[in-house]
Write a sequence for this structure.
């Protein structure tokens, strides 16, 4: 089945794709996963689940509760006792994130959280708890999850697995444009260094490292627009 780009509008392609697929989109920071995942979910009438936002929300909670970052059992307890919720958003705010009923959508994107989330996401007890939640959310299908370990650990039997990446320089350049459009100051060299460091930490951690699943489709988006990537994934679902 061939689906052209101009057919990829909200819900229009959903009739052509089973309602119950699980779609996993993994890849490194700044590859455009969340934009693409949200667009694919909207086009298919599926639920979008941003798993990175769940790790960010857990990080926000730990900072909020002033828990010592080396106290892994206190961290695990706080995360297990908390309620992290994702509620559907729109094109501008892809998803709304709540921790124990408090909206933290904007706060979890701060530079401080971005710096702390990677080491916290390497803690086994946090991962175990969030992975269970992610599996429950995905259970009925009709979902697009984006993250680092969706195709390898969370949903090893997902119907469609994508590994979306771009070269570090392209990702840093895209992030620079994004931050500038938000009126935030940033410089290319620092962004590039942060991206390379985050890639290294996410790829080399012991538990659920960033890795392409053997049965995933690799998409290198250096020379592709968001529309191109979305169209390519939807073709794979049909
Ligand atoms: O996609 P993001 O930048 O919002 O993710 C935030 C952090 O969470 C990132 O450092 C990697 C981690 N993460 C993870 O370990 N596993 C996931 N499934 C999603 C994100």
């Amino acid at each position: 089945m061939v689906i052209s780009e101009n057919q990829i509008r909200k819900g229009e392609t959903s009739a052509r794709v089973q309602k119950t697929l699980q779609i996993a989109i993994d890849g490194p920071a700044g590859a455009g996963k969340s934009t693409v995942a949200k667009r694919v979910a909207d086009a298919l009438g599926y639920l979008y689940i941003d798993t990175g936002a769940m790790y960010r929300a857990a990080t926000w909670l730990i900072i909020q509760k002033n828990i010592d970052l080396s106290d892994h059992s206190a961290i695990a307890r706080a995360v297990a006792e908390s309620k992290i919720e994702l509620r559907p958003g729109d094109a501008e705010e892809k998803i709304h994130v709540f921790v124990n009923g408090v909206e933290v959508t904007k706060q979890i994107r701060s530079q401080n959280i971005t710096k702390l989330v990677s080491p916290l996401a390497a803690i086994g007890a946090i991962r175990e708890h969030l992975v269970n939640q992610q599996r429950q959310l995905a259970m009925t299908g009709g979902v697009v999850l984006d993250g680092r370990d969706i195709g390898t650990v969370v949903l090893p039997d997902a119907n469609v697995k994508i590994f979306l990446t771009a070269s570090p320089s392209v990702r840093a350049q895209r992030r620079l444009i994004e931050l500038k459009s938000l009126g935030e100051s940033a410089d290319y060299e620092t962004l590039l260094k942060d991206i390379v460091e985050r890639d290294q930490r996410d790829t080399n951690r012991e538990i659920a490292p960033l890795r392409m699943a053997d049965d995933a489709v690799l998409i290198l988006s250096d020379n592709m627009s968001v529309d191109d990537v979305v169209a390519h994934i939807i073709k794979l679902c049909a």
Summary: Residues 29, 51-52, 55-56, 117-118, 121, 147-149, 198, 202 surround 2'-deoxycytidine-5'-monophosphate (CB under 6 Å). The longest strand covers residues 160-165.
